[in-house]
Every structure is written in structure tokens, then in C-alpha cells.
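haha ok so turns out i had the wrong file open the whole time. this is the CORRECT one, sorry everyone. sequence first:
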Amino acid sequence: MALRLNLHNPILIIEDQEENRELIARLARSFGVEADTAPDGKIGSEMAEKADYSLFLVDLEMPVMNGFDFIKKIQEKKPESLFIVISGNDVPEIIIEVMKLGIFDYLIKPINRERLYQVLNRISEFIRLKESERILIQENEERLKAQLNWILYKQSWLTDLEKNVDLSKSTLNNLKQSFFSGGGFGAIVSIVEMLQANAKREESGYNFSSDIIELLFENSFYVKKGLSSLEKSLSILNKDFQNSLRKTNSSEIYDLLEKSRLHLENSNQQYREKKNIFIPQITPPPNGFNLDVDAESLSRIFSELLVNSLKYSSNNSVINIYLSVSGGYLNINLKNEFDLRSVPGIPKNKELLVKQPFYRLAGFVDETLEGEEYFTGLGLTIVDFVIKKHGGIFSIHNVLDHSIGEKPVEVVLATVSLPIKN
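then structure:
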């Protein structure tokens, strides 16, 4: 008979008779099982709080705290604990009552060496099986968790992929629209196609219609303008803002903004009068604050916002510009009315999208306004980029304006918030 048993933790023998307690301990140790002892349930419970035991061998009749109370107390704190009752009481009713506590076995005194080995061997096998079951359950749970994570990852990846594909499609379509709408690139392509269709081959070359050639020359202006705006867009995106920010006071900021407003008003006077759009003078902000700004970039993006407001404003409307100081920021607000029949303004679900490259809410609009420096479809993207480089925030969205008439009117409000410096 193999006498070595494998229990990871010692057993605790709780027996009030010292000779029985020491005998069981010696037998257990002879099987390779570490054993601690306690003379009553109270001391045994105190020991159980300080250490982990593979098994409790418990006498029923003990002073201070008997076996029943000890088992119940340990079960409350450590429900997975294993118990073997050792008792001289062989009354069936008592044995049944004890077994109802959920103990592993009931041994009648005096303890037989072979019987003790058998029960400890069963305990060892039971613990091994429980540990194997625990590991199996844990592995299954981890495998299931890994499978679920993989499914979620694939779903997330596919969702992101779909979004990226949709975004790519949208970007490409919008870029295509930017290139091929109105004058410029789109017109050049159309004119070349007309030339190909109407060209007459002669010995020394081709014979083209003078009207088509003149149209080609005219549209070269828009191509050059587009290339120029693309170059300006790249220049500001590559700019070193860290070394270009300068301390600027409130009066200088006001002069910069008012100068941009007057330039837009004068350069696009015919367009403004055609739509009957009024841009009142800006009210000066409170004095006494400074900003760290790149004046040239701030002027250019403010002009971009003004042109954007002008393009999308409804006829017979007003573009209001007002400044305010709150929460440590200078807020530059541009408010314009829009014609809901032709453009939805900036609805909530589009607030972030309109700042993305080449995203367009509306179809073709007049792209020939002076003061619009950036490549078509990049205007608001560059505004957002420049403001972030200043440590500020740019937002643009629809709001209800109660100041226009008897009923509230939905308008677009673009706000640039720049941090004030001491």
C-alpha cells in the first residue's frame, strides 16, 4: 500500500483528548500529510482564520465550542471547506444529523490507521478532481471569453472596416465633387472631351472650334486658383505654430477681425448685394486681456468662416459677428441664417462630420468668392486644425435664435474659443 498522499495544505485535527489528537496527527504525517492540532472548536476556528486547511477532522463532543458549532461557523466563512467527523457516538440519528451538515465522512473512534488512510486518500482524490474541475471550468470560461472577445473584436473590426470603407467612399465622392463641380477641374475635363469629340484632323495638326478654345483658356484661371488654394492649404497644415504664436492684446484682436470683415464686405460686394446680405460692424470686446495667436493664421481662418457664412446664408439675411469673454476664453461667434429648402445648416449629427476633409452637406455652391483661400472641402477642417494649434475649440452647429422675429428661427452658429493669457 502506497503511503504517500498529496494534499497541498495541512489538515487541522480538533480533538479535546490530547492522546487521540496526537495519534491522528502522527498517522497523518506518516502518510506525508502535514497536520496541525487544536483542543477545541474555538481555538480551531481562530487557527482556521489565519491559515488554509485541506481538511478539518472534528470531534463532536468538546468543551468551549463543540463540533456542530465549529462546522457551522467555518461553513459560514469558508463554504468550500471539507470536514470529517471523528466521534465515539455511533447512534444512527446523530450520524444522520451530522451528515446533513454536508460533511465528507463520519469516522467512529478509535481511529484505525488503514481507515484513516483510506479516507485521507479519498479526500486527496476528491481535492484533485475538484481542482481539475476548477481548472477545466476556468479554461472553458477563458476559452469562451476568448471566443467572445474574438467575435466582438471581429465585429468591431468589421464595423470599423465598414465605417472606413464608407468614409473612404464618402471622401472620394466628395473629393470627386470638389474636383468636378463648377468651373475649373470639372470644366477642363468637359472641355477636353468636347475637343476630342469635335476635333478635325488635318495634315499639319488639329482644327478646333474657337469657342471651345476660348472656354478652355477661361477655365484655366479656375484651375490655377484651385492649385493655389491647395498650396495655401498645405502651407498652413505644415506651419510651425509653436514658434509663431505671439502675445496679442484685445484691441489688436478686434482690429484684425474687423479688417477681415471689411475686406470680405468690399471684395464680394456684388455677390453680397445680389443676395441682399448685411454684415454689421463687430462690437469691440472688453479690454485688458491677451491671447497667444498667430495673427496671420487667425485672420485667414476668420476670413474663411466669413466666406463660408456668406456662401450658405439665405437671401435677405444678416451675418452677425459678436465677441464675448467667459470662462477664460475669448469667444468669436458668427451667426447666419440659412435657407432650409436648400441646405440643412449644421444638424447635430453632422457637427463633427463637417470638420472632416472634403465632407459636403450641400451640393454645388458658388466657389468663386474672394477671400476663400483654402482648397474646396478643406475650409472647416483647416479652421479646426488652426484653432486646436492655438489651444482653443472650434464648434459649428444649428441653434434656435429668438432674436430675429416673433418665432424662433434655426440658424448656424460658428464659435471659435481661444484661451486668454495673463
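Residues 151-172 have pLDDT under 50 and may be disordered.
again sry for the mixup
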